[in-house]
Automatic annotation (TrEMBL):
<feature type="domain" description="Methanolan biosynthesis EpsI">
    <location>
        <begin position="31"/>
        <end position="234"/>
    </location>
</feature>
<protein>
    <submittedName>
        <fullName>EpsI family protein</fullName>
    </submittedName>
</protein>
<feature type="region of interest" description="Disordered">
    <location>
        <begin position="1"/>
        <end position="22"/>
    </location>
</feature>
<dbReference type="InterPro" id="IPR014263">
    <property type="entry name" value="Methanolan_biosynth_EpsI"/>
</dbReference>
<dbReference type="Pfam" id="PF11984">
    <property type="entry name" value="DUF3485"/>
</dbReference>
<dbReference type="InterPro" id="IPR054654">
    <property type="entry name" value="EpsI_type_V_pred"/>
</dbReference>
Length: 245
C-alpha cells in the first residue's frame, strides 16, 4: 500500500507542519469540540430558574395585617437594623419593619427581610450580625421552637441582646423555599439542592423581639405573638412565613 502523498512545501510558511487527510490530531480536536458544545447546551438547559415572581413592596406588606390578635401596628421605626450602607440596601428586595403594641404586655418588634431569589444575601439581617453592629452584646444564643399545630413547630433561635440600658429578647427563623433551616450550613445546603433540581428558591428571614427585664415574660410574649400572627394571616401570608406547613 502506497503512503499518502505529502502536501507540497510552501516557502512562504517554512515552519508549517504538513497535515494529512485523516490526521488523528484533527479528529481528536473535532471530538473535543463536539463534547464542549454538548456540555454548553446541557448546562443551558439546567441553569437554575427563579421559582417565584418578584413582589412589590405594597403586595408584600399587604400579606401581614395591621392587627394581630390584641396587638396593633403602631410604628415602623425604632428597630435594630444593619447599617444602611450601599451594600446592605441591595441585599434584599423587601424589608418590612413594624412595632405592634397591646395594652397588657410589651411591644413586639417585627422585621421581615425577603428576597424572591435566595442566594444567601439575607445573612446581613441575622441578629448575630446586626445586633453587635448596633452596639449590643449577645448574652445567649440557643435553639428555640414555637409550636404552631400538633404536628408542626417553627424552629429558630432565641437570643438575648444587651446594650446596658436596653435588653432585647429575640426569636428569629429562616425559610428557604419550603424548608426552614436553623443553621447557616443547612441554609446553604437547601439552596444547593434546589439549584441542582433546576430552580432558585425564595428566602425569608423573620425576626420578632421584645424589650423586657424578665426572660419568661419575654418568651411567653414572643411565643403568643408568633402563634397569633401565623393564624391571623391569609394562606399567602402563612406560606410566606412558614412555607407549605
Amino acid at each position: 500500500m502506497s503512503a499518502a502523498a505529502t502536501p507540497p512545501f510552501d516557502p512562504a510558511q517554512p515552519n508549517a507542519v504538513p497535515v494529512r487527510d485523516g490526521d488523528p490530531i484533527s479528529r481528536r480536536k473535532m471530538m473535543i469540540g463536539l463534547a464542549l458544545g454538548a456540555t454548553v447546551a446541557v448546562s443551558e438547559l439546567y441553569v437554575p430558574r427563579r421559582s417565584v415572581p418578584r413582589m412589590t413592596d405594597k403586595s408584600f406588606a399587604a400579606l401581614f395585617p395591621d392587627r394581630v390578635g390584641p396587638w396593633t401596628y403602631v410604628t415602623a421605626s425604632g428597630l435594630v437594623l444593619p447599617p444602611q450602607d450601599q451594600l446592605s440596601r441591595f441585599l434584599y428586595e423587601q424589608l418590612l419593619t413594624r412595632i405592634y403594641a397591646e395594652d397588657n404586655g410589651p411591644q413586639v418588634m417585627m422585621v421581615l427581610a425577603y428576597s424572591s431569589v435566595q442566594e444567601g444575601r439575607l445573612q446581613v439581617h441575622r441578629p448575630e450580625v446586626c445586633y453587635p453592629a448596633a452596639g449590643f452584646t449577645i448574652l445567649d444564643n440557643e435553639p428555640m421552637a414555637i409550636p404552631i399545630s400538633p404536628s408542626f413547630a417553627i424552629h429558630g433561635r432565641f437570643l438575648v441582646a444587651d446594650r446596658g440600658a436596653r435588653r432585647e429578647y429575640v426569636f428569629y427563623w429562616t425559610r428557604v423555599g419550603p424548608n426552614m433551616p436553623i443553621r447557616w450550613f443547612d441554609q446553604r445546603l437547601f439552596m444547593a439542592k434546589a439549584n441542582l433540581q433546576g430552580y432558585i428558591p425564595d428566602g425569608l428571614l423573620a425576626r420578632v423581639s421584645v424589650i423586657a427585664e424578665d426572660r419568661e415574660e419575654a418568651v411567653a410574649a414572643l411565643t403568643d405573638f408568633v402563634q397569633t400572627m401565623v393564624k391571623s394571616v391569609n394562606p399567602a401570608g402563612r406560606k410566606m412565613l412558614i412555607g407549605p406547613h
